[in-house]
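Quarterly update from the structural biology core.
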Amino acid sequence: MSTRRFFLLVLAQVFLLLIAGCGSPQTPAGLISTDTPLPPTTTSKPTSTSTTAPADEPTPTVEPATSAKEFHLIYDDDGSRDGTVALLYLLSEPAVNMRAVNISYGEAHPDIYIQHIGRMLDAAGHADLPLGAGQDGPVGNGTPFPDWLRRLSDNFWNYQVPNAGKTYPVQFAPDLMVDTIKQSTDPVTIFMSGTFTSLAQALRIDPGIQEKIDAVYIMGGAVYVPGNITNLIPNSSNMVSEWNLISDPVAAAEVFDAGLEMYLVPLDSTNQVIFLKEDIQPWHDGDQKAKFSAELYDIMFNEYGWTEAEIFDLGAAVIMVEPDACEFIPLHLDVITEDGDNLGQTVVNADQEPNINVCLDPDADLIMQVLDEVFSGTRESSADSQSPLIDPVVGTWSGIADNNGYELEISITIDRLCQVGDVCGQFEITNIACSGLLTWVGMDGEMYEFKASEMTETCGVGSDFLLPQEDGTVKYYWRGDSGEATGTLEREP
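Predicted structure, tokenized:
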């Protein structure tokens, strides 16, 4: 066989590689000492006279900045069960291009919980996502989550996470946030369902990133309703704050004052979205991400004895993606940073220009419908979602392809943002000095078809087909004027 023919086969092999702390959880029965008062097991809250109801006159609303298009997203949670399910939901939405996953200070110890997240993402086919862990403490004063809850998060809520023996590379969360924003060619959206710690630090590191932040969606605060601190600390005298704000109020105040385009989903909203055990049963019929989500909530209902659950972070995630799920009202909110019974409170200041857009009255039925369709796998495809997703072949792959006994050593990297017709990434066949760029031209059944461009002279011409396998590898087929070649490539860690 000629060297030219080998080169063509090599190129084919190359293509093969393409492929919350939030609202405050209820205390599970039997997991703390009997002399510790249990928080309420419903959404009832203590009465407070320090909040003021909105006026009866009509209030202007705003459309979200990223209302219906595509989200180039940084996820930043504080290591909550609800926030973890929100991540799995966001990874299931075609409109979301996840760019980085952070765990910040709050409900979890970031360096421990991010490894749980890495293992779960690996098992769900998203091992290529950059991971970040924040500092384990606030930038200023604050009220920390109870130790018993943080110990539960350390144990991943008693869930038997896959890949238990594996560890994953992790960056410092604020640095990862800065680097991701600066390196992105598109404006970045931040979904924040924990403390404001990492974002505040990222803005301190490089204030210029603000210019490339499209919007920040936040689960946190209590505007016209009482707070939820007594759900975890029953004897607390703070009746007005929410956990994501009180854990690091200085960081929250800095972000509120940063001039970002922000959309807040507070307790006013999330208190209205509640589901029961039967609501999650269809999720068991969905994909791996849906099964993980169902099993995390099964522990709450089956082992902890919960009868209902608010979906704080998860509800906020749906509201971000689905513009019809809530109308946002512009308000000016200040954060109380002084120690005392109002630490962490979000206070409406009607005398100043709005600094944040707030969801107060969500469409709970729509939110539940979206979750049911996404996690049960019953959502009908829209015209925009008919095009195939590149996700199964995204990442860096390597392996050997065989062409009539000749072995080709291949390495390929494919970008997550690739669409049909795009140049997706690059390839290299190291043992014959063949390299070039890859363009995704479409699908042949379940196989991804690619063409090469800007190749070195040692490469040939042909069509390359990649077929994802259940074991996480990709089967490669090459068809060209020099015959055919096949091989199997594995994703690099």
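Confidence is low (pLDDT under 50) at residues 1-21, 26-51, 381-385.
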